Amino acid sequence: MTGVFVTFEGIEACGKSTQVKRLQRRLEAAGRNVIAVHEPGFTQIGSAIRHLLLHAKEANAMQSVTELLLFEASRAQLVAEVIRPSLAMGLTVLSDRFYDSTTVYQGAARGLDCAFIRMLNEAVVQECKPLMTLLLDIDLETSFLRQMRRVRPVGARDRMEQLPSEFFEKVRQGYLETAKAEPDRIKVIDASREEDQVEQEIWEQVNALFS
User: Fold this and answer.
1) How is residue 65 annotated by DSSP?
2) 46-71, pLDDT tens digit by residue?
3) Between vectors from CA 43 to CA 72 and to CA 146, what angle results, nearest 5°?
């Protein structure tokens, strides 16, 4: 792998998608070839899995293990179809969510076996591991207020967004514990600030990675 792989993580409405786009623009302005992806989805197979996970009425009966395996299946397709070839060509890959999401959403919050999740993650991503992960951290109150301000059709919250606040508190704490265990890779960013401030700190972290 000759490219650079950077992932973005965080709870709902932390600003991941916005900051991925901002970083992509800055990197491209600096002369780098960049591709931005997201999970779950992006590939055709991933998009079909995303619909089943988040929007299909049948998903209301989904078991936690089923959910885990579907997220991993979407990731496997994304790695094989997009991420691995892009890194091999020397591109910079930015991903809105990756395997840390599975570690905290299905592990820390759902309570599934962490060793099993690690095994699945390893099998799916193999050598395609991020050099840096940017954890955009906000508290639950900020997350809720931002979600309320989103412009979207009435009733458009997906299945995961409808989970109770206790679930997302477990997710946030899971992220922070993961970051504490891997400080060299995971950089915690205070995402409660203005978007320009968050962008600047992200740029400094990523610029140091390239340096």
Assistant:
1) H
2) 999 999 999 999 999 999 999 999 99
3) 75
Identify each DSSP E strand in the chain by its residue range: 4-9, 34-38, 92-96, 132-137, 186-190
Rounded Cα distance, 134 and 183, in Å: 11
Q: What is residue 83's predicted lDDT score, i.e. its pLDDT?
A: 98
Can you tell me whether residue 59 is helix, strand or coil?
helix
**Taking the domains of the chain in order of start, what are their residue ranges?**
4-210
- Partners of 35 in the beta sheet? 93
Instruction: Please report the pLDDT score of residue 143 as a whole number.
Output: 94
Which residue, among 187, 54, 171, has the nearest Cα to 110 in the 3D structure?
A: 171
Q: Which long-range contacts (CB under 8 A, 24 or more apart) does 162-166 make?
A: 165/140
Q: Using one digit for the tens of pLDDT, what is the confidence trace for 120-132?
A: 999 999 999 999 9
Superfamily of domain 4-210, CATH level 4: P-loop containing nucleotide triphosphate hydrolases (3.40.50.300)
